[in-house]
Amino acid sequence: MPDMKYILVTGGVISGVGKGVIASSFGTILKSCGIDVTSIKIDPYINIDAGTFSPYEHGEVYVLDDGGEVDLDLGNYERFLDITLHRDNNITTGKIYQQVIERERRGDYLGKTVQVIPHITDSIQEWVQRVAHIPVTPENIPPKVCIVELGGTIGDIEGMSFVEAFRQFQFRVKRENFCCAHVSLIPMPRSTGEPKTKPTQSSVRELRGLGLSPDLILCRSEKPINHNVKEKISNFCHVAPEQVICIHDLTSVYHVPLLMEAQGVVQYLNERLQLNIALPRPSRFMQKWRNLAKRVDNLRKEVNIALVGKYTKLEDSYASVTKALQHASIAACCKLNLTYIEAVNLEKQTKIDDPVVYHKAWQDLCKSDGVIVPGGFGQRGIEGKIEACQWCRETQKPMLGICLGLQASVIEFARNVLGLKGANSTEVNPECEDKIVIDMPEHHPGNLGGTMRLGKRKTYLEPSIVSKLYKKDVIEERHRHRYEVNPEYIERLQAAGLRFVGRDSTRTRMEVALVDSHPYYVSVQFHPEYLSRPLSPSPPFLGLILASLGKLKNYLSKGCRLSPRNQSDVSSDEDEISEEISSLILIDEKKVVQNGTDILNGVH
């Protein structure tokens, strides 16, 4: 078996510099070369996992097939690389210390003093090596390259044990199998108007002082930086100029792999890690990504979607929902305009407390073409979500409810159609008159970590608009919730027009609800956003976007097929070229001859 290759991605100067997208882009480039890739995200916090985090801490909690609650960067990896990761692909300080302490309690260390070095650092290295070999594709082929993203910033005290572990690790796996890529910020102060390299120099110096020498320095900047700056970084940071990769802010993240590839990343990794990639790459290398990036840039028609949520102050709280909406919008050939509406601002109490905010929120809702009501926990904002559901149902506005969104739509229907004014969720009011939403039987109060219905589960669909969108009767989607629709009310709700067309294997848990007389009033208990991919959008999200554009009926009548230029699976290279030229004709007839010639010649 050939040796596993490792690419460690670290960050400097500030957190949130884009390590996740860059790590994903490394994987995308290598996968386009025919190399199977896996990813590991290291989070230095002491929590065992991300399950108990507030969305305001690190953004959304991403859920995996096996029920692992992990950092949202693993969502980036899955979407970019189209792989299925596992809970062990997310390493935290808490997991490492828990493992070491459990070993100590069992006597595995034979009475020795347990220390950070070697016991914690050895445990980190063993974990990485073990997880790197786990297959992440349906074919169950072991990966050849493992991309490891170290969260936080070099110099953070909580990340020191991981940095030390990788200092040792580079010798453990040998130089030709280990590469370090350091992502740093090149600020451009308005007062001077020129890029400053000193923060990057300091960050690289600190990394080298800790025993890791970066092989690649990826410079993030607001605007493109010139060759002189690249040369300066090369001189002061002890790397060759071709090892300095510049990544400025781009129109979409789909350009990042293309920009990295254009700066020689394939050639460098091929030589540095001895990957045996055939060079030069064919002219149509990464063509699907090029087509996708161009399509995103050239979208003209717009669709306005309102997101009614509880955590709208931090957009990362709904990262996967936003991505799923973008994927569906791209497939429908339109540009997404997403407006975040704080659910509390739609409530009647806000009209009294702050009428300006109240009317602004309702104005934003009324301007939308479609509405999405995503998940959440706790009682804050639930009445605002219920108000939004009622407005969408009564005005025939397309709506998709997810998790808590389903529960809000059912409570609203019970109150305003069945006349059960005391209808509520026991999460909000345990003593409510009509317990429409109740806590799950397997939920054990007290221990919040890992007590929910988590991971991929089967849902059995009845014939409906949802089964047509999925093109199947049995689907598998990921779940993350504690509360369910009370089975005792199902018959009454269905008799009044709220049809439950998706249930679990026991037929007692309600998974999908809709109103047949509505253009698109669909709500689901699962989280379809987690399985959405750039070239394969989630069916419920695609349904919402198409309904918002007034194209859903036409789409369904054609057997749920998009026009050829929107399809991800193109029959041949020639078809892709002709479609690309056709789209360019639509964009600018004057440039079509030049652009068409460039594409045919493989020039980008």
Automatic annotation (TrEMBL):
Q: What class of enzyme is it?
A: ligase
Question: Which residue numbers delimit the CTP synthase N-terminal domain?
Answer: 5-275
* Gene Ontology BP annotations: 'de novo' CTP biosynthetic process; pyrimidine nucleobase biosynthetic process
The enzyme's E.C. designation: 6.3.4.2
Q: What's its catalytic activity?
A: UTP + L-glutamine + ATP + H2O = CTP + L-glutamate + ADP + phosphate + 2 H(+)
Q: Where is the Glutamine amidotransferase domain?
A: 315-545
Keyword line: ATP-binding, Glutamine amidotransferase, Ligase, Nucleotide-binding, Pyrimidine biosynthesis
Q: Which GO terms describe its cellular component?
A: cytoophidium; cytoplasm
For molecular function, the Gene Ontology terms on record are:
ATP binding; CTP synthase activity; identical protein binding
Tell me the pathway.
Answer: Pyrimidine metabolism; CTP biosynthesis via de novo pathway; CTP from UDP: step 2/2
Instruction: Please describe what this protein does.
Output: Catalyzes the ATP-dependent amination of UTP to CTP with either L-glutamine or ammonia as the source of nitrogen. Constitutes the rate-limiting enzyme in the synthesis of cytosine nucleotides.
Q: What is this protein called?
A: CTP synthase
Which organism was this protein described from?
Answer: Vanessa tameamea
Gene assigned in the entry: Ctps
